[in-house]
Amino acid sequence: MSGLHKLSEFPPDPTLQEAIPVLTRLVREPTFLDSYIPPLVQRAEQAEDWYVAHCDEDEDGSYSLQVFVWPPDSKTQIHDHSSWGAFCCVVGSLSEERYERLDHGRRPDHARLRMLWRRVWRREDGVSTLLPREGGIHRVGNPTGSKAISVHLYGPRTGDVDGRDYDPSRDYVCDRRESDGRTDRSPFARTNGGGT
Ligand SMILES: [Fe+2]
Questions:
Q1: Which CATH superfamily is domain 2-176 in?
Q2: For residue 77, how far is its CA from the centre of ligand 1 (angstroms)?
Q3: What are the extents of the domains in the chain?
Q4: pLDDT at residue 45 is higher than 50
Q5: Centre of ligand 1 from the C-alpha of residue 74, in Å
Q6: Model pLDDT, residue 44
């Protein structure tokens, strides 16, 4: 989906700081809004869970640009990424919860989380950014009764895994080695099973 990359006009190895203007431009780009978005809005009517509709990655893994479709009431698991990330809502609104770890991280499979904040993102609210690993433990979802669409940009991985998935109901964390094709190369894990 190299067309997305060209529309976004970003440098060869974008940084997290550069991701903000890149996404801000893209969600106002008339070609993107007129060509990419309307078919996704239509298809969102039939979707039962969130999915990645477009994914544009370069060969050396320096970025991954993805378009997510969010039916009503869909949300990811709590997760992090081994890369930095940024996203901007294009259609509708999304909620984001951000967490911190309260444990020291030395016990395998164990993580104790505390929610730091929760907020709603609409297109006019700008770009949400997150750092790799513990710097960006979050959950994204669409709690509204209308569909939502968002654009996400991820930097290069900083480790062997795609990220980690968390289950705070049992203080559990596990590596997510590969995206399952539905995630923002990771991003998110479904609430009903698999990982994003
Ligand atoms: Fe994520």
A1: Jelly Rolls (2.60.120.10)
A2: 9
A3: 2-176
A4: yes
A5: 14
A6: 84
pLDDT at 179: 64
Q: How far is the CA of 51 from the centre of ligand 1 (A)?
A: 13
3-state SS string for the chain: CHHHHHHHCCCCCCCHHHHHHHHHHHCCCHHHHHHHHHHHHHHHCCCCCCEEEEEEECCCCCCEEEEEEECCCCEECEEEECCCEEEEEEECEEEEEEEEECCCCCCCCECCEEEEEEEEEEHHHCCEEECCHHHHEEEEECCCCCCEEEEEEECCCCCCCCEEEEEHHHCEEEEECCCCCCCCCCCCCECCCCCC
- 6 Cα–ligand 1 center, Å: 23
Distance 120 CA to ligand 1 centre (A): 15
**Segment 152-178, tens digit of pLDDT:** 999 999 888 999 999 999 999 999 987
